[in-house]
Amino acid sequence: MDEELDEVFSAEMDEEFGRNLPGSEQPDITQNQDPFFSNRFDIVVPEDDGKKDNCCVNYLKKFWATRNKKILQDKETIIRTTVQELLIYAGFITIILTIALLPTAYLQTYFFTDVVQQFAFPLESSDKETFTKIHDRPAMWNFILSDFLNSLYKENAENRLVGRPRIRQVRVSSIDCQLPRRVPDHLRHCFPTFSAELENRDPIVPTINKSVVLSKPAWRWRSASESGIDSVPGTIATYTGSGYYLDLGLTRQVTSEMLTELHTNLWTGESTRAVIIDFTLYNANLNFFSVVQLLFETPYTGGVIGSVDIHPLYLIHRHSLSEYVVFVCEIISLVFVAYYIVKEIISIFKMGLSYFRGFWHLVDFLVISLCVACVGLNIYNRSLVMGILRQGISSLDVYPEFVHIAHMALQYKRLLALLVFFSLIQIFKFISFSETMGQLTATINYALYDMIGFTVMFGIIFAAFVQAGTLMFGSTSSEFKSFDLSA
């Protein structure tokens, strides 16, 4: 009886597993065949005639197809899908590079910046009151009352003043120094480095003429919301947009009287940590606005550290061919952004949290995030420009707040630079499909931990070199800075 049962079960097992034998109809996977591209599964699903997709749906499925959905299909399908993604991404890269690089080709931004700097603040001059030779407060005021006024209010100049200039200062409160008891009491008052917590908000009392007329608003503190100015980074500290400020006049005579009144009544003092002058110039020949900011830092050690920041802005469009090309590329970029957003949403929905485990998936997510940030910031900048052009240029008797526009334009350029960088890096995702680049990628992955170890060792040596140089030469040479500035 047992022998009969064994024969029955053995016959059924042979019939069941005979399909998987080498002689069966299943495709054979040779030893040298890549198992990733092999047809390991032969799943046949009967088609339902009532649920067949039409040609439009099939086209959309092929259009949104990615290599992630083609894992179980043949190698030819994966190659076709990769070529499709590469062609679409090549169009995206072309649009991004056109938006980023074409304006630099027809806009002479560096030329205009260099001309403004050399014209208003010459680097080489025999005059002791030039901007580059300011090292104390008397020299600062001599420059403001002479060279600054002469450069700003020139007649028949190519660079015309837009609106009113503004002069502003920030001050700190006096604190008790932590000194030994032997130090006299009159030496214990200190004015530290500027910070928002130590900012002085008390009104300034004129020393000579108690009833100032032209500069009356400059003697009381006002917040950053009233001034409408962003923080200003300097060499010593970062200064807030609040402080004591005065909008200067439209003519040289009125501005000279205002500044003389400030200087005579000791508007700046020992607690002053920075004097900032903002103004905007316009050149009709180049159709450029130049937002200029002069910063005079007065640290607690004494002296003055001067710096100038010039931001050229192209705000009034002339509707040239290059501008139309950039505008069309910006519209097309919105279509690409929408396409990649939908594509990545589909990938996240299909793959779940495993989507964020892949390196190139993270790069895709970063590129899309930068695209969205650039689009949003570009729209915000355009709205700011439209508002400023209506208020700041039409009315000359106000201070045009171009500083905020220049700051936001700088942030847009930085985001656009990051977008171009990571977009070009992403090309390696498609190049790695070839055998040579695949070997290079595998080599990098194999040596990843060694590269990380080398980076750590190099960072330690670099940090030691920077710290040693700062300690030895930082007090005697201006070329040696702190660790964060040097690194």
Explain how this protein is built.
- The protein has 487 residues and is α+β, with helices and mostly antiparallel strands.
- It folds into 2 domains: 83-105 and 320-446; 110-313, no CATH class.
- Helix content is 49%, strand content 11%.
- It contains 14 helices and 9 strands.
- It has helices spanning 2-17, 55-63, 75-106, 109-120, 137-152, 224-227, 252-264, 321-351, 359-393, 402-425, 427-431, 435-446, 448-473, 483-486, and strands at residues 159-171, 175-176, 189-190, 232-233, 238-239, 244-247, 272-283, 288-297, 305-313.
- The strands form 3 sheets. A 5-stranded antiparallel sheet has the order 6-1-7-8-9, sandwiched between helices. Strands 2-3 form a two-stranded antiparallel ribbon.
- A hairpin with a 4-residue loop joins β4 (232-233) and β5 (238-239).
- α8 packs antiparallel against α9 and α9 runs antiparallel to α10 (402-425).
- The longest helix has 35 residues, at 359-393.
- It is globular, with a radius of gyration of 34 Å.
- Residues 16-51 have low confidence and may be disordered.
- Pfam families: PKD_channel (PF08016), Polycystin_dom (PF20519).
- One of its GO terms (molecular function) is calcium channel activity.
- Residues 131-315 form the Polycystin domain.
- It is found in: Cell projection, Cilium membrane.
- This is Polycystin 2.
